[in-house]
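Changelog-adjacent note: as of this version, every example in the card shows the full chain rather than a window. The one below runs 334 residues end to end.
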Amino acid sequence: MIASLIEGVPHRALALLGALLVALVAAPLVAGDYLLTVLILILYFAYIGQAWNIMMGFAGQLSLGHALYVGLGAYTAASLYVHFGIGPWLGLLAAVPVAALAGAFIGFLAFRFRVAGVYFAILTIAVAEFARVGFDHLSWASGSSGLFLPVAQFTHNDLWQLRGHPVMFYYILLAAAVLAFIFCRALLQSRVGYFWRAIREDEEAARSAGIDVFHYKMIAVVISAAMTSFAGVIYAFYYNNLFPEQVFHISRSIEIILGPIVGGIGTLFGPILGAVILTGLAETLTAALAAAGIDLPGAKQVFYGICLLLVITTLPDGVWPWVCKRIGLAERNK
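Full-length structure tokens:
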């Protein structure tokens, strides 16, 4: 299994991956509280970017409403915890199917009736907005007043209840990001991955070749939704509060997709590099402005826009393919 995953990967790439992993494992030992928070955000967006990349980068289906799955995962696990005392890991067993069913519903509506391209993207936005309005009026989830998770003072990390120091969340997200990377690599090497790329490049040609386009597109949207819901659970128990306007808003969906776009859609390392560039530099900009006493609302959003504009005009394939060429690595999975 492991041999098949690393087959064809240059030794230099494996060495860089190993060095990066060692650095990430050791980072909390030297990072301060603020830097640790930034690293948690980077890992969060790296993981969720991989999940979105399955839909768009691998299967070619543009989703602009991925915050829907984050919100469903977050609210499902958090509500079960608040109302029934069910822990987050057991809540995850409910959150994943809920998000997967939502993805299957959207996929069925779109793929069965040949809704594609920009119309599919609009459909994903519409369902996410519908969920935002619905949860805003759902009393069981505390509506617009917000759902707050009880927070107690712990002298130790409680992994089962996801209560404890941010370092615990850092390592959970690090493990999730690593597993997502390995899982996506395995998907690309599988029969499903080859069919996805055929659909992405030319859907009609793939259909003519005998590929069940509807079936494999449904697989992509369900896997992507299920993976994204896990990020929602971590989000809920890390921040301990949920507001529909905050969780389901389209701006959250845009934040999810910017990392893979900047890093390189369809590549394995693109979502990770994009998360590092966007989140790392944006937080550095925010800290610099705060240190200078400058209050500039929307500075982070302007920065995102500038980064996106620069990448689209100068590196349309993303930063990672460009980096690969400069350091002599071959990115096979584009």
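Structural remarks: Residues 112 and 214 are 7 Å apart (CA to CA).
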